[in-house]
Design brief:
65% helix, single chain, 0% strand
């Protein structure tokens, strides 16, 4: 009678990518919050720039406020979320990441997106829509960079769908409603998911193209190209 041989499985975790996202979280967090402090000073002290002899439209409240919110949301919180995912997911699933090259592509692609936003927003290149200020090419880059960092096709499409919806209450509602739905209803819903993803993706792209379609892709008025004048002297 032979003794049963016990095998111990070993797993390799990619902590390098975790440290990269952690470093990016700290750096962009400092940048985003410093910008927030700067615009807060402008609200309290409107003549702050004049007192320092600075007269740049790139540093006005209207240019820096969307930079602050996007930096905190996408740069600080976004990198922190991905750091947590890359740390916890392999340990929970007891499996290594599928491809380290995709992980690095995800990281550097995300930083490129953040840098693009940090350049375009102070320059005034924006859709003018609250919390959707980034132009549509950057929106597409955000969805692609994040989805390509996921090896599973279904998870990638689910991420892009969630990105397009952008509403946490709706996602929670769908999750809880699925518990009470019957198997037949869930199967029909699963068949509709690919069509819903396609519709959301098209709407997300059209929204920033200003095609003149009411509520879907409204046309933005032409901005008057005049130098920004300070209101306070």
């Amino acid at each position: 009678m032979r003794n049963n041989e016990s095998k111990i499985e070993s797993f390799l975790y990619d902590n390098v990518i975790v440290k990269k996202f952690m470093l990016a979280t700290v750096i962009w967090g400092i940048v985003g919050m410093l910008v927030g402090v700067l615009i807060a000073i402008q609200l309290y002290w409107p003549t702050f720039y004049q007192s320092m002899g600075i007269n740049l439209e790139y540093l006005t409240f209207g240019r820096l406020r969307p930079l602050h919110t996007n930096a905190v949301i996408f740069a600080f919180v976004g990198n922190a979320i991905f750091m947590g995912v890359y740390y916890s997911l392999p340990r929970l699933c007891k499996a290594s990441m599928w491809n380290s090259m995709l992980s690095n592509f995800h990281f550097w692609g995300w930083q490129l997106i953040i840098l693009s936003a940090a350049i375009t927003l102070p320059l005034g290149i924006t859709t003018g829509k609250e919390y959707a200020e980034l132009e549509w090419p950057i929106d597409i880059m955000i969805a692609l960079a994040a989805s390509l960092g996921i090896a599973d096709y279904a998870a990638s499409m689910s991420f892009m769908a969630g990105f397009g919806i952008g509403t946490a209450p709706a996602m929670f509602a769908v999750s809880y409603l699925g518990i009470f739905a019957s198997a037949g209803v869930r199967q029909k819903f699963n068949k509709l998911i690919p069509y819903g993803i396609a519709v959301i993706a098209i709407l997300m792209i059209m929204r920033g193209m200003a095609l003149g379609i009411p509520y879907i892709s409204p046309e933005l008025p032409d901005t008057v190209k005049q130098p920004v004048e300070n209101c306070c002297h």
